[in-house]
Design brief:
The complex is a heterodimer. Chain A is α/β, with parallel strands linked by helices. Helices cover 37% and strands 19% of the residues of chain A. Classes of the chains: A alpha/beta, B alpha/beta.
Chain lengths: 378, 189
C-alpha cells in the first residue's frame, strides 16, 4: 500500500507552515481559503500552537504581526476581499520589518465576485495593494506538494529578510487534491528567528551593522522595552521627520529584496532549451499550460514553459536570458492581463507577446491554449 | 490523453458527491496511482448544483479538470440532463433509477440503479447514498480492490460510523450484477 495520502492544496499550506515553525494562526474564514483556517484550528493545538478566529481580516493580520514581534512565527489566510482589508497592516509589516506569511487563495473578483470560482486577479494587488514604496516577496505554487515546500520557503524568506511574504495561491490549487508523501520535517532547512540582544553601544532595536541590510530581531515584551511604529523611524524605533533618515530607511527596505533577487527568485522551465515560443504562466494555470505544451511538443512544435514560482519580484533576469531564442511569448493567466504587464516591460517590445486570459470564473483549458498557439501560427 | 480516466460526480449540494469523488481519489492514491480531485459548487451549503471530478492515471496528471468524462454519476435530474451532454465516447453513466434517462444516451452504457432508495430503505440512512454509489461504481468499473476502497472510505468518515458505511458499501456493490459488470470494467492504460 502506498504511503502517500490524498491532500488538498489548502491543507498542504498548513502542513508546510507548521513544518516551518508556524505556531499562531489568526484569521477570518473566507472561501476558497477556509480550509486553511479549519486545518490550522485542528493542527496547531496538536503541536503546541494557537488558533485564533478574529472578528475580521484587519484584526487578523494585526494579531499575526503582534504574535510575530513577540517571537512566534505566524500566518493568516484569506481571499481577495479579505486581502484588500489587510493592505494597510501589510504595509505596516513591511515598514516595521515584521516577518509573517499572508496567504491569499484568489477567487474571481472584483469585490465579493464569484466566491467559489478560480482567478488570479490579485497579482498586481500583491505588489501594489498597500501604499507607498515597499518591498514585496510573493510566491505562487502550482501543485499540492509544491504548496508544502514553497510554504516552508515563504517562512524562511520572511525570517531572513524580516518582511511579510505573500503566498499567492488560487482556487485551482487551494481546492485541488493530489496524492502526496510529505517529507520528514527533520529533512527540511528552517530559518529560525535570530534573536538579538545587542549589548554595549549597539543597543538600538533597528541597528543594522555596516554592510548589511537586515537588522536582527529583538523579542518584544521580553527584557528591554522598545518602540515599533509604521512612521518613519530611526534605529531606536522611534518616529522621526528627519528626511535623510526616512529616505535611508525606505531605500534599505527596498534594497533588502532588490539586492537579493538571486536568492529570492525561482522559476521553473519546461522544454525551454530549444523553444522558439515560451508560454508564461503561474499558479494553477500551469496545469493546463503543461498539458497543452506536451500536446504541442508531440506535434513537433518548439514550445516551452516559463513559470515564475517567485511571482514578486518578477523573474526579470531569467526571462531576459531566454529572449534571444524566442520568436514570441504567450502569457496565460486567469485575469485580464496583469503579469502580462511585467512580461511586456521585460521584453520592451522586442519580442511579440500574445495573451490568453479569463475573467468569467471558469478554468482555461489545454484546448483553448492550443487554439491560441495555432492562431499565433506557432 | 488516452491514459487519463476522467470521472465526474454530480448532484445536489448536500448529497455528498464531493465526498464520493474524494473517496475514489483516495482509493487511487492507496492503489499507488496518480490522481487529481477537484470540485465546483455554488456558495450555498445545501441545494444548488454540486459537481466533483476525479482524474486517475498511471502517468503524471497535469490538467486537473475533467474535459470529457469517461464516467458520470448523476443523482439529480438537473445534473443528469446537464452533464450527459459532454461525455467521452463509450462513457459509462450511472444514474439513480428514479430519474428519467435522456433519449440520446446509449442504454448499453447506462447503469440505472436505486442508489437513493437503497441508502434510505436498506442501509437505513439517506445520507449514505454517496457511499452506496461508491460501492456500486467500483463494482462496475473495478478500478480498485475492495480493501483499497474500504481503506479510502475509512480515511474520510467520522469515527464510529465504520459499520454503517461498510453496510452502505456492500449494499452498493450488490446493486451491480457481476455478469453485467464485465461490460463496464475499466483497465487503466
Amino acid at each position: 500500500m502506498s504511503k502517500a495520502v490524498l491532500m488538498q492544496g489548502n491543507e498542504a499550506a498548513v502542513e508546510g507552515a507548521i513544518a516551518a515553525g508556524m505556531r499562531i494562526f489568526a484569521g477570518y474564514p473566507i472561501t476558497p481559503s477556509t480550509e486553511i483556517a479549519e486545518q490550522s484550528a485542528l493542527r496547531l493545538p496538536q503541536v503546541g500552537g494557537r488558533f485564533i478566529q478574529m472578528e475580521d481580516e484587519i484584526s487578523s493580520i494585526a494579531a499575526v504581526l503582534g504574535a510575530s514581534v513577540a517571537g512566534v512565527k505566524a500566518m493568516t489566510a484569506t481571499s481577495g476581499p479579505g486581502f484588500s482589508l489587510m493592505q494597510e497592516n501589510l504595509g505596516y509589516g513591511a515598514m516595521a520589518e515584521i516577518p509573517c506569511v499572508i496567504v491569499d487563495v484568489q477567487r474571481a473578483g472584483p469585490s465579493t465576485g464569484l466566491p467559489t470560482s478560480p482567478a488570479q486577479g490579485d497579482y498586481m494587488q500583491a505588489r501594489w495593494g498597500t501604499h507607498g514604496d515597499h518591498p514585496v516577496i510573493a510566491l505562487s505554487p502550482s501543485s499540492v506538494l509544491e504548496t508544502f515546500y514553497l510554504m516552508v520557503r515563504a517562512f524562511n524568506l520572511s525570517e531572513k529578510y524580516r518582511t511579510p511574504v505573500i503566498f499567492l495561491m488560487d482556487e485551482i490549487v487551494g481546492h485541488m487534491r493530489e496524492g502526496v508523501e510529505l517529507p520528514n520535517p527533520s529533512s527540511l532547512i528552517i530559518n529560525h528567528r535570530r534573536p538579538s540582544f545587542h549589548d554595549g553601544a549597539n543597543k538600538q532595536c533597528y541597528y543594522v551593522p555596516e554592510g548589511q541590510l537586515v537588522p536582527a530581531m529583538k523579542p518584544f515584551g521580553r527584557g528591554e522595552r522598545y518602540n515599533i511604529t509604521g512612521l518613519a523611524h530611526d534605529e531606536s524605533g522611534f518616529p522621526t521627520n528627519n528626511t535623510q533618515v526616512a529616505g535611508k530607511l525606505v531605500s534599505r527596505l527596498l534594497a533588502k529584496v532588490e539586492e537579493h533577487t538571486d536568492d529570492i527568485v525561482r522559476v521553473e522551465e519546461y522544454a525551454m532549451d530549444d523553444a522558439e515560443t515560451a508560454v508564461v504562466c503561474f499558479g494553477g494555470t500551469t496545469r493546463a499550460v503543461m498539458s497543452a505544451i506536451l500536446e504541442a511538443r508531440a506535434a513537433g512544435k518548439k514550445v516551452g514553459m516559463f513559470r515564475p514560482i517567485t511571482v514578486w519580484p518578477f523573474p526579470e533576469q531569467q526571462l531576459k536570458a531566454r529572449l534571444p531564442q524566442l520568436k514570441n511569448i504567450l502569457m496565460v493567466e486567469h485575469n485580464h492581463g496583469q503579469m502580462l504587464l511585467e512580461v511586456q516591460r521585460v521584453t520592451g517590445g522586442a519580442t511579440p507577446v500574445s495573451f490568453l486570459g479569463k475573467v468569467d470564473g471558469t478554468v482555461i483549458t489545454p484546448a483553448e491554449i492550443l487554439a491560441k498557439l495555432q492562431e499565433m501560427e506557432v | 490523453m488516452s491514459n487519463r480516466y476522467e470521472m465526474r460526480f454530480a448532484g445536489s449540494g448536500g448529497q455528498g458527491v464531493i465526498l464520493a469523488s474524494v473517496i475514489m481519489a483516495e482509493a487511487a492514491v492507496i492503489a499507488g496511482l496518480n490522481t487529481v480531485q477537484s470540485q465546483a459548487y455554488g456558495p450555498e451549503a445545501r441545494g444548488g448544483v454540486s459537481k466533483a471530478e476525479t482524474v486517475v492515471s498511471r502517468e503524471k496528471i497535469w490538467y486537473s479538470k475533467v474535459t470529457l468524462p469517461n464516467f458520470l454519476l448523476a443523482l439529480t435530474q438537473a445534473s443528469l440532463n446537464t452533464y450527459t451532454k459532454t461525455l467521452a465516447e463509450g462513457a459509462v453513466v450511472m444514474m439513480d433509477d428514479s430519474l428519467d434517462c435522456p433519449d440520446y444516451l446509449d442504454k448499453s452504457r447506462v447503469i440505472a440503479i436505486p442508489i437513493l432508495r437503497t441508502a434510505k430503505e436498506k442501509v437505513g440512512k439517506a445520507f449514505t447514498a454517496n457511499i452506496v454509489a461508491v460501492g456500486a461504481i467500483n463494482a462496475a468499473l473495478q478500478l480498485f480492490t475492495d480493501e483499497e476502497l474500504m481503506e479510502a472510505v475509512k480515511r474520510h468518515i467520522p469515527a464510529g460510523t465504520e459499520e454503517i458505511n461498510k453496510t452502505a458499501l456492500a449494499a452498493g456493490k450488490e446493486l451491480i450484477d457481476p455478469a453485467a459488470a464485465a461490460a463496464f470494467v475499466h483497465r487503466l492504460g
